[in-house]
Every structure is written in structure tokens, then in C-alpha cells.
Write a structure and sequence with these properties.
It is a single chain. By secondary structure, the chain is α/β, with parallel strands linked by helices. It is about 60% helix and about 15% strand. It is built from 11 helices and 6 strands. The chain has a 6-stranded parallel beta sheet with strand order 2-1-3-4-5-6, with helices on both faces. Strand 1, helix 1 and strand 2 form a beta-alpha-beta unit. The radius of gyration is 17 Å and the shape is globular.
């Protein structure tokens, strides 16, 4: 069973998320928190596999909780639930190593898929979230141009095959889908992804996916 913590300051939202997740036979919501501080404590106490955190919470917000979880319970995979209202929030979450992003209007099946992906050690960035993040980060043309140059310099060290894999990460594809697209085994894709993350100094697939988009891969 995948042990999940849900953190949101609105009880009805927590109840809805619990209902969706527990409809899956391999997911168990073992704890609920109303703020980030409580989320960190409960994650430590219940040894959860995945923490689903809202950004806007009292006492300690989801981004601060993400950073604290990275220090206190580093094995917990964190999914951020957000509307992406502020570009700075997205950048901070990426820096802190969030395992994925979900919009609050995501479909129930997407929520379950995200939790399963995170528990399996994969980052999850839905196509809708990918586009939303890209739009948020593209707000300033000059900044986007500079970011694109830096991204292209970083990916220049990759082999042609590694760039192909990275481009599909940028599209939000899973290892299995990437393997089918490139006629590779899933195990081989995992090896490529690990190598890409190391070469690019990315903490997770989400950071690599955004770097791919900045570099213009797949366009």
C-alpha cells in the first residue's frame, strides 16, 4: 500500500482528496494535516510514502513544509497542489525538489496517477501543469531568452539519445511511454533518466522537464 499524507487547511478539500485516493486499492490515506507544520510532524510519525501539500496553508505553507520535509523526512515524495497563482512559488518548489505538481481542478484519475508515480520514484507533471508552469516561467521575454541560452548550454553535454529522452520528459511522458516512443525498455529509460539528471545537476524529473522546455527540445 502507498501511504499518503494530505495537507490542506480546508476540511472539505481534504475529504474530497481522501475519497478519491482511497477509491484506489493500492493507496491508503494515513494522515491529514491542516497546516504545513502539522504535515511535517505527521509525515515523520506515520512514515508516509507520499505527501500531497497545498501551497496556501496557515502556520507553515506548503512550500516551507516541502523544504522542511526534505530535511526531516527526505524519503517522502512531495506533490504540490496549487493553482500556480505566483510564478515565484513554482520556482521555489522546483528548487526545493518537489516530486510533481497538480492543479486543483485536476481529474480524479490524474491525482491517483500522480501519487502512484511519486511513490514509484518518478516525478509527475501532467500536460496541463507542464503548460501552466511553462506559461508562468515565460512571463518576462528577456528572462526567458537568458534561461533558454543557459538551458541549451547545459543540454549540449548530452548525447543525441539522451536529448531525445529529455525532450519526452519535457512533454510529461512516463518512463513506460518514453520507452514505447523510442523503442526502448522501461529499465533502459530509467538508466537514461538517472544519467540525464546527474549530467544536468537536476534533483528530479520535473526540473529536467522544465529545462527541456527552456532549451526548446521537441519543438
Amino acid at each position: 500500500m502507498i501511504r499518503v499524507l494530505v495537507a490542506d487547511d480546508e476540511p472539505l478539500i481534504r475529504a474530497g482528496i481522501r475519497m478519491i485516493l482511497t477509491s484506489a486499492d493500492d493507496i491508503d490515506v494515513v494522515a491529514e494535516a491542516a497546516d504545513g507544520r502539522e504535515a511535517v510532524e505527521l509525515a515523520r510519525r506515520h512514515r508516509v510514502d507520499v505527501a500531497l501539500l497545498d501551497i496556501q496553508m496557515p502556520a507553515m505553507d506548503g512550500l516551507a513544509a516541502l523544504a522542511e520535509l526534505g530535511r526531516a523526512v527526505p524519503d517522502v515524495r512531495v506533490l504540490i497542489l496549487t493553482t500556480f497563482g505566483e510564478r515565484e512559488n513554482v520556482l521555489r518548489a522546483l528548487r526545493e525538489g518537489g516530486a510533481g505538481f497538480l492543479l486543483k481542478d485536476s481529474a480524479p484519475g490524474e491525482l491517483i496517477a500522480a501519487v502512484r508515480a511519486a511513490a514509484a520514484g518518478n516525478a509527475y507533471l501532467s500536460p496541463a501543469a507542464t503548460r501552466h508552469v511553462a506559461d508562468s516561467l515565460a512571463a518576462a521575454p528577456a528572462e526567458a531568452e537568458a534561461r533558454g541560452r543557459a538551458a541549451r548550454e547545459r543540454v549540449a553535454s548530452l548525447s543525441e539519445r539522451e536529448r531525445e529522452v529529455l525532450a519526452l520528459l519535457g512533454e510529461g511522458l512516463s518512463n513506460a511511454d518514453t520507452g514505447r516512443r523510442l523503442h526502448m525498455s522501461e529499465a533502459t529509460v530509467k538508466t537514461y533518466v538517472s544519467r540525464i539528471l546527474a549530467k544536468l545537476d537536476c534533483d528530479n524529473r520535473v526540473q529536467a522537464a522544465l529545462l527541456a522546455r527552456d532549451a526548446g527540445l521537441g519543438e
